[in-house]
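Quality-control log, excerpt.
Job 1 of 2 completed; input and output follow.
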Amino acid sequence: MTSHDVIVVGAGLAGLRAAQLLGRRGLDVALLESADRPGGRIATDVVDGFRLDRGFQVLNTSYPALRAALRGRPEPLSLRAFEPGAAIRADDGALHTFANPARRPSLAWATATDGLFPLLDKAKLVAWTARVLATSPRRSAERIDRSAAQELAAAGLDGPVVERFLRPFLSGVLGESALTTSAAYVRLVWRSFALGTIAVPGAGMGAFPARLAATLPAGALRLGQRVSDVRPGVVHTADGELTARAVVVATDPTTAGRLLPGLDVPHLYALTTYYHVPPVAPARSPLLHLDAAGGPVTNTVVLSAAAPEYAPAGQALVSSTVLGGAIDEAVVRRELARLYDVPTDDWAHLHTSEIREALPAFPAGRPLRSDVALGDGLFVAGDHRDTPSQQGALVSGRRAAEAVLASLGAPATSGAA
């Protein structure tokens, strides 16, 4: 039997952040992870010299919790940015390029005069965006009573602007296309895209949790440790029993529900990403491509145009995502030929990444934050306790750490975002 101050189960972003903050307070922390690396759903595999993230994921530089978690780490993540906008393929075959005028002023006129949807709709979209930015995140978080669809309708946003732009864009972020997600979360998402830069580390998304793991006390992270049972003050693994003054379960929602019977487990959306290697990159710009016609491909991008390190020298890597489980790769390839307006018969299919539990659902009516302290020295963290995002996972880890410190009689972490 081994005793610690705190045992954290699960080394995803929430568990890493909780262990990081608790370790900084001098507590003896054991972070148990069943996999052979930290990161949870965030991981990068190398296949034939290509860096393949497990599903299409990006970092948003506007997330305050991201900046707080990396504070004091001098080594840069070497972020590679995407273009702030989207290329949208209309049902008539025309390609329409939109850019954030605040970030790309040179494209403001072209965006304003593009005919994908009426100028009045663009004015309404600008007005709604301005209202979102003018509202504090705390106030936006209170708007849990209606869905994203209801929020957009109340702003006068319907018809072509929703069907040809907002729905295709948001579905890839939310994991669902009906826009039933809470307006509170969608407003926070829209704010983050308006203010932040979307990027990936040159070494792949797995570099982010690896950087967090490097901030932990020596010996705190223990890989290959599958937890079978959690009780107040006691954790069982295949290697034996560990005891602690507090236990934080920071696993995926399904595992958390198994280890903590009675925990509310949300519905989880699936996402599947296809990686292709074309003989020639179908686009030079790292611009997200969307389908205004409502085809199965939610979004696609030439990843290597943003991060050349994702592909061997002289080669290109295309990432394309669909909602739900895997579909026929030939269907994806056919859709990519239409979206990029190039032949795809000679594209090599490198890998399919099917993530059956990619994102927790966040329907209207759900509070923005759920309790992390369960009583009896048990705590829970993860994006299912906050927003279904990296920001939410990191914030939940911080909240769990503060709740543990309070329960042990230590002051809360000061100044942590």
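Job 2 of 2 completed; input and output follow.
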Amino acid sequence: MYEIGQRLCKRFDDIPEEEVGERFPHVLIAGDACHTHSPKAGQGMNVSMGDAFNLGWKLASVIQGRCTPELLHTYSAERQTVAQELIDFDREFARMFSARPRAEGDDSSDSVDPKEFQEYFVKQGRFTAGTAVRYYPSLISAKPTYQALAEGLTIGKRFHSAPVIRLADAKPVHLGHTVKADGRWRVFAFADRQDPASASSGIQALCRFLEESPESPVSRYTPEGADIDSVIDVHAIFQQGHRDLALQEMPGYLLPRKGRYGLVGYEKMFCPDLKGGNDIFEMRGIDRDRGCLVVVRPDQYVAHVLPLDAHDELAAFFTCFMLEAV
């Protein structure tokens, strides 16, 4: 008889509870080493890869000198919570799998209504697929103070992509597919209603801050001689259609020269797919009057939502865990 073992470690690192905050972890574990459960729905593989991905980018950031070692504390905190949610889901799911189908008039506790089983499976489908994972407030996941500015891009959850039109060449693309899981942080600046070519627009003010201010997180954390987007990659999404904007009138910061030959990067600006009926501002609940900043972690989870003009708060967020470039 096969017996399901549902077990979960208290921590995914070697720091005892009484020493949390006093030292950094030296040993970190992932996958079956810290959580076991039934083989239903492929959760062992899915969650284990999530563990490894979460740990991988954090280790790389610390080893490369981009982030403080405090970042490593978030691994156990984030993934242990996910594993606990998995165990809770798996316990009920395994019970349903093992129970016999309930016949009409049967109300015994060792049976399950097939319709109820089907509804539970559908309800938990997003968790099974890994898209329902949510990280709670921490060093790298802000409190939802400004969540109303982007209701469809939940802090702590995966960045929810949507179709857009690239301004430079009018090519339809998915916004989430334009970035890679390459260790960089992303800032998606959703513009307000103003013409982005206007010197007084929120996008122009943001770009001036990022390019010129000594408090700019881009300036502070980008190594000398590196591409301007090598650590924090900024993208802008305008409300106007791509035919209504002139590329040459957009902020120069969003047309950076990069690489050995200083070629212009044309993939920083996007417009809603109005013709296709896929308006990203409507689809993701973006506040049209105020716009917003959506900060996305290297693992593509939303870390923060801020007003478009919250320059100081944007800088303060990165100060908590990043190291200035030397």
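Post-run check on job 2. The chain has a mean pLDDT of 91.
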